[in-house]
Amino acid sequence: MEGDDCGFHYGDGTNEAQDNDFPTVERSRLQEMLSLLGLEAYQGQRLSLQDSLQISFDSMKNWAPQVPKDLPWHFLRKLQALNAEARNTTMVLDMPADARPVEKESQMEEEMIYWDPAEDIAADDIYSFSELPTPDTPVNPLDLLCALLLSSDNFLQQEIILKMSLCQFALPLVLPDSENHYHTFLLWALRGVMRTWWSQTPRGLGSFREDSVVLSRVPTFAFVRMDVSSNSKSQLLNAILSPGRRQWDCFWHRDLSLGTNPREIADGLVEISWFFPSGKEDLDVFPEPVAFLNLRGDIGSHWLQFKLLTEISSAVFILTDNISKKEYKLLCSMKESTTKYYFILSPYRGKRNTNLRFLNRLTPVLKIDHSHVLVKVSSTDSEGFVKRLRAIVGSVARGPCRRVSVEDMAHAARKLGLRIDEDCEECQKAKDRMERITRKIRDVDAYRREELRLQGDLGRKAAQVEREFCQLQWAPEPPEKHRGELRRRLLELRMQQSAQEPSTGLQDFIVGISSPSAGERQYFLRWMEWGLARVGQPRLRQPPESLLALRPKLGGASDFSEPLWPEPLGVEHFLREMGQFYEAESCLVEAGRLPAGQRRFAHFPGLAAELLLAGLPLELVDGGTLSIPVRWVTGLLKELHTRLDRRSRLVVLSALGVPGTGKSTLLNTMFGLRFATGRSCSPRGAFMQLITVAEGFSQDLGCDHILAIDSGALISGALASAGDRFELEASLATLLMGLSNVTVVSLAETRDIPSAILHAFLRLEKTGHMPNCQFVYQSLHDVPAPSPKPRERRQLLDPPGDLSRAAAQMEKQSGGFRTLAGLAFCDPERQHVWHVPGLWHGAPPMAAVSLGYSEAIFELKRCLLENIRNGLSNQNKNIQQLIE
């Protein structure tokens, strides 16, 4: 192809040459691909994250794409469900039986063109192998990924890449766009990827470390192709990354389904993947994190990307069959580079001497010797060759090599003229505002005392008084004197709160979420999440293993003013502070101490409602006081009702269970939600997030939105003998289930049903309101357990005898405790009990989400939606009814 010489124009760091060095046929390929996939409409108004998460008819069926326009949505659905087969772009032609020629039934299997790179193809024939796909031919998965990313806004791009990382797919780093003559470095899109790995210190002591892949500086190794190579870069990389004999297809390669389909727009794509150690010697290929880069296409046609890789890599591996004069000149231009170069050759017969001649000339230029040249032919022992490559990578990583983070890579890309997705004005303004807040945080506890004052002693005491006042209302003959005393104490505490002024940090936060630009608000919240994750971790005054001692005791009362474990500082604490200002002001207005016209914080619930509509989880139960700020939540729901107008029919779906049973991950996988997961110090409160039902499906489903509630860490598994702590857990469990149309009870062991949930069922039975219940047993082990038989399912719902009798006695049940199945009005043999395999396939951090887990969660989701549609979830609510 033309453009082999264009690489020489890129060396000066400008991007101008890209405008004119692509032939006319290349300019139209992107638009043709977008049209084929039905993505042309999203070139002006990009596809958003909220668009992709709407519940529609397709959410209830495991459908296969039939035409190319189905492929982007099929990919997004599969990726949201963390399905390892998301990259399969095979289409199923849905033809009527009578229209299908009988003699051609055996030809319904896909026909593919397999191209052997070693074949000698004339230049005139090159386009015979790269005709654009038609509606009857498959699309290369890398083309689909590039087209979808080019049609998505920055937040959907970030979500796509986050889900890809959980599936252990290689992630796009540089996104090519030859149509518009610029390539994009995806820094923002990668920011959400967090990884945990085993970090070994020089003293031999080790611990697990969690950090963003964007900020971690690691040795980086690039694999590129020069002209033609019989060896596959992607297969070599997969073999290097995979421990033992089990190979994971992190990088898509030619031997996979559709892997031989020609790439139309994905050449020039740079992918990145990492190896992270687990601390297990038999699994750890390398003792420290290592990054690997893969350039799709030939370096001669993508010189700008190759130039970037040479500036950020510790070493570059060049795969080629033969070195010609043209390639020799290209490599001579890299003589100033300090990067190490290695060649992996698979020479044609008779070309050996030519290769040796050029390699001898390159020796002083690239500072290489015979150890930098590896030969791999069909007879080469593949396992031994991979071990040799690992040894080279390990040797370079142990020495004084270049270590870069993704942020460092972005700086180099910016100098070369690549576009950085993070450089837009809205994103940078939001980042600056976040940094004004986080730079003041030196000590989390001190910051909370000084900047978030209303959540301190005043807030905890006010919550305790309101709890007592509420309990007093249900007493047979509440003493009026005691009630008046509680009112006086509460008003006094609220007046003290109202005397405070919002701190500078809170004011900056309010300005950030008040921006008229929805995009800037979204950027600001994401920046705040990451910024607080780095500076907002509490200081543990005890070693991590002693954190278990902070859990509630089996007997005696608990002091709710003291947290059960250290809680990290998060966005919810700033919103909680806003809620306290609103609560205090509302209390004074109700008591006649403040005219309604003098309110300063009446607009706060509206700001929070906008965040809920934008997809942010908001606190329903305050994690600091383990109580519901009723005025704040009521104000928020009223604002939500106003904004949704006629689309305010709700189904409330709650997930209950003790921390560590996978309930948050379950909700996130089912609906693409953002509840906190997998943190040693996770938020303690219950959170809610709104899911939109597509307008075309809302009439059929019977609701316009689903409000998902995650019980978080509220239910710790305290026994009935734990006194006040248990009573509080049981009350909160009863409340959350009472609000719900559908409840998912997440269990880790067959008999691990928390006492608080048992008592919640007993209490709800008295009210006559029982949500549709699904019991999910999640295997917490890597080995998938067999699905329980009907008898075992029934045993799963039968709590131990002593516990059931005690629960019935405490709740004054005259007929005793029947079974949990009887209470929940469900038949264990009719899909009310689910067995979900383990989340991971393999050992983290290099494990991918198991296909069994993904498929089981999809079936659960389908069942939940079917129950909602069939009216089995009790009467759906509108927001006004939920408020009441």
Question: What does this molecule look like?
Answer:
It is built from 32 helices and 22 strands. By secondary structure, it is an alpha/beta fold. The strands form four sheets. Strands 1, 2, 5, 6, 7, 8, 9, 10, 11 and 12 form a ten-stranded mixed β-sheet that branches. Strands 13, 14, 15, 16, 17, 18, 19 and 22 form an eight-stranded mixed β-sheet that branches. It starts with 6 loop residues before the first helix and ends with a helix. The N terminus is likely disordered.
Q: In oligomeric terms, what are we looking at?
A: single chain
Radius of gyration: 30 Å
The percent of residues in helical segments reads: 25-40%
Question: Count of helical segments?
Answer: 32
Q: Compute the average pLDDT.
A: 82
Strand content: 5-15%
Stretches with pLDDT under 50, minimum 5 residues? 1-27, 95-130, 539-565, 782-786
End-to-end separation in angstroms reads 69 Å
Count every beta strand, where a strand is a DSSP E run of 2 or more residues: 22
Q: Based on Cα principal axes, name the global outline.
A: elongated
Major sheet details = 10 strands, mixed
| Content-based structural category | alpha/beta
Subcellular location: Cytoplasm; Nucleus
GO molecular function, one term: GTP binding
Organism: Chinchilla lanigera
Pfam families: URGCP (PF25496), URGCP_GTPase (PF25683)
